[in-house]
Amino acid sequence: MQHTHDFSLAIIADAHFHDIDGDYGVPGVTLGARSLTLRSWADSRASTRVFNESAMALDAALKAIVARNIHHVVLLGDYTDDGQRTTTANAAKLFKEHEARHGTRFYALPGNHDIFGPKGRHQAKRFLQADGSSLLVTSDVSETAPNHIVNPAMYCEGYPLGLAPMAAFGYFRRSDYLYWETPFGLSDDPLERTYKVSSQDGQNLYSLMDASYLVEPEDGFWLLMLDANVFEPRDGVFPIGSEQAFIDSTAAGWNAMLRLKPFIVEWMADVATRAKQLGKTLLAFSHYPAIDPFDDPEGTREVLFPNSTMTKRKPSDAVANALIAAGIPVHFSGHLHVEGVSLHNNDDGQLVNVAVPSLVAFPPAFKHLKIGKHTVAVETVDLAGLPMDADIISLYRRETALLGYEPDKALAADTYGQFLRLHTAALVIHRYFPTEWPSDIVTCLAPMSLEQLCLDERTRPNGMDANGLAILCQQGQLSQQDLAQLSIPELVSDWYCLSQAASLALPVLGEQRLKLLHWVADLYCDANNQAEETTVSVFLRVFFQALRHFLNRAKSPVEAISLFD
């Protein structure tokens, strides 16, 4: 290797920055001495991310990066809320000011929320008012909702215009880079960084920009920054470049990359060969995972939720095989707001995918890498201890009262980690049950406690009765009252928290809850039901198999990755 020193790097994925001090063309809400532009809690509790807390979380992450004396930061896509012009400009301003103050260099990649196709798309968001009501602000002049505001600054730009505010952060050449190139050569001109893609019916052919680049920020270290957004033209006839003309990139990821951007994999192989010849340490990054970040070899999610967003976003084994063939040893990804390390092995080698969690979902964290000659030390920096903004919470409560909702438990949280864990509980009720779970399963399970689950004739394992349950609880040193007090929606929330957070969920859930989760997972996984299986019993068996997998996975966090010369 050329380098004689370790290289320190932070990775922030899915910051989803919403500027609560920004001007979105709607009156701000006065909270104390501040006038804030805030998204609604009604939207937050049904979204896989929170909105108004993003500015606080990003600020805390950047302060932690300074405190750790880290001078290089990868922004692993979805650095904006939804790519709105105002949001992107304000995010870029924040990063520029941080660079000017601390000398930090940022290297950005676009995510599916930052940019769309060649011409962009409209965005519409609801903003809270002082009385707890909300007002729709949109970039679309054809919007018909009553009492809305049209603001062109809400528009999400396409390639290359949407990259312009972030131009200083890797997308284009800078004089202080030791080396920089793209898959197309040394030019950073967008017109020289395009590829052809067509709809399957051949009616729609586009020349689209790819924003991938290779950068050497310090001697001996190469960062391979891969734009894995894929905007595939739809079959049919559409206005040229319109949003309707393209399939959203959200579920495309690396599966579509192999099909529609094969030149990227060829370039990766060429870069890997040169890196080895020149003695460079090479790390690869993209917004989308190259291996299933849940590391679920049994495919339990596909069985439980075949039409869920997570199932649609799962990369195939062909992706990992292609990256191994290209000589890529380690790849860092975001997108799914997951903490975890996954491995894929074949006869040609091994690929490690490090999934980086989001700042605005459970668990809130970023990665700190210390890259040596032969290993990468990976530390997860947890932001769970941040305090909540009492003013924002008070407005959420006002909104909840106005709408007549029962207050979600998240609104009583003291810390950011508690808030996001309880936000996950709200997601179970307001998103996962209504949109992803089979309705007959929800109807059966949602009203139950864990004790009722173990005793109900539709759901009990091994013909369990009250006597048997009491004996098993005693053997497991568990209180049956704990089973009675744990609702199934809470249990499901724990399932999602372990799924997303792996080892970071352990201190949050606590020793007693984990003991209970291990007990019930083993109870259902090891059951030997003689009765004919039903839809519910099959679902429960697979659900608890997944829970046991998540619990075992959480015990073994990966803190160092070998680099192969």
Which helices and strands appear, and what pairs or packs with what?
Elements: E1 7-12, E2 29-31, E3 34-36, H1 41-44, H2 54-67, E4 72-75, H3 85-102, E5 105-108, E6 124-128, E7 134-138, E8 149-150, H4 167-171, E9 179-181, E10 194-198, E11 205-209, E12 213-218, E13 221-226, E14 232-233, E15 246-247, H5 253-260, H6 262-278, E16 281-286, H7 300-304, H8 309-312, H9 317-325, E17 330-333, E18 340-346, E19 349-355, E20 365-371, E21 375-382, H10 390-403, H11 416-435, H12 439-445, H13 450-455, H14 466-475, H15 480-485, H16 488-501, H17 506-509, H18 511-525, H19 535-554, E22 560-562
Parallel strand pairs: 1-4, 4-5, 7-8, 13-16, 16-17, 17-19
Antiparallel strand pairs: 1-20, 2-3, 6-7, 9-12, 10-11, 12-13, 14-15, 18-19, 20-21, 21-22
Helix pairs in contact: 11-16, 16-19, 18-19
